[in-house]
Design a protein that fits this description.
By secondary structure, the chain is mostly helical. The chain is 56% helix and 9% strand. The chain has a single domain, classed as SGNH hydrolase (Rossmann fold, 3-Layer(aba) Sandwich), CATH 3.40.50.1110. The chain has 11 helices and 5 strands, in the order ααβαββαααβαααβαα. The strands form 2 sheets. Strands 1-4-5 form a 3-stranded parallel sheet, with helices on both faces. Strands 2-3 form a two-stranded antiparallel ribbon. β2 and β3 form a beta hairpin. The longest helix is centred in the middle third of the chain and has 30 residues. The protein is globular and about 55 Å long. The two termini are 25 Å apart.
Length: 280
């Protein structure tokens, strides 16, 4: 998962690698293929086109519940129509587009003016996306989901189904750990969120996204690791230690807690003699 906000050695992937090595006594390599802004559609496409070249034993997906479900609706690599998932034809980039991208890369590396303009553009985009994402979170936790949300979850289920099929072809298993929403962990954040969207606590089911993913995991026989209970306990013990203020990404402590929970769950699955993709 993305971890630009902490040191490399404090990031989830690095911590998990060291912790699993400590438990198993074996050399373990955790390859972090995360990219900011990727959803399940992007992750599946990367796995099929590039990830399988590394011959993974386990495909571990860190799912940001609000971002990923919303991103899947963009249908960048797959379209979902009438309950069927279909991969889009792969389009090769034209020479003109390639040259244009090379020019942008050069300017980004050598022009201070271009960098200033790019930061301004990204700031504006981030504000727009933040508002859109906040509304999407509200729709995800409402007791009565919209048709759009229902379809987004259905597409997400089919994407994970295909991910498991493609992983099993390489004799790899699939597990998903669920990254909690900040409003699910912090009562203070939840109060502000409900006020912003004019919702009452009676109108929502706060852990509804987790329930949706657990149902998908049960149906597709994919192991689901829910971080929410442990994050809630940690937040009550020491508020504001897991998330960066006004950012929403994890602190080093958030990464450490997530790695501990995932390591313990994977260790348990090995101990009970079942594959990672078969829930114990």
């Amino acid at each position: 998962m993305e971890a630009n906000q902490v040191k490399f050695e404090d990031a989830f992937a690095s911590l998990l690698e060291r912790q699993v090595e400590g438990v198993t006594g074996r050399s373990i390599e955790v390859i972090n293929a995360s990219v900011s802004g990727w959803g399940t559609d992007d992750e599946l496409t990367y796995l099929v086109r590039e990830g399988i070249k590394y011959h993974p034993d386990l495909v571990l997906v860190g799912m940001t519940l609000h971002n990923d479900v919303q991103d899947n609706q963009d249908e960048e690599f797959h379209v979902f129509t009438d309950g069927h998932l279909q991969e889009k034809p792969r389009l090769e980039i034209s020479l003109g587009d390639f040259v244009f991208l090379q020019m942008k890369e050069f300017l980004a590396s050598h022009s201070h003016l271009y960098q200033v303009l790019l930061r301004a553009k990204r700031f504006s985009w981030a504000q727009q996306e933040g508002n859109r994402l906040s509304s999407h979170v509200a729709s995800l936790i409402k007791k009565q989901p919209t048709l759009e949300v229902v379809q987004a979850w259905d597409m997400t289920r089919h994407l994970f189904r295909k991910m498991k099929v493609e992983s099993l072809k390489q004799e790899a298993n699939v597990a998903v750990f669920l990254i909690p929403l900040w409003v699910q962990v912090s009562e203070e954040r939840l109060k502000g969120f409900l006020t912003e969207h004019q919702l009452s606590i009676e109108q929502i089911v706060l852990d509804q996204p987790q329930s949706q993913m657990k149902a998908i995991g049960q149906e597709e026989q994919i192991e689901i690791i829910d971080l929410l209970p442990d994050f809630r306990r940690a937040e009550k013990e020491d508020p504001q230690k897991l998330y960066l203020l006004d950012d929403g990404h994890w602190t080093a402590e958030g990464h450490r807690l997530a790695a501990n929970v995932v390591k313990e769950r994977l260790n348990y699955l090995v101990g009970c003699g079942k594959a990672y993709s078969a829930p114990c």
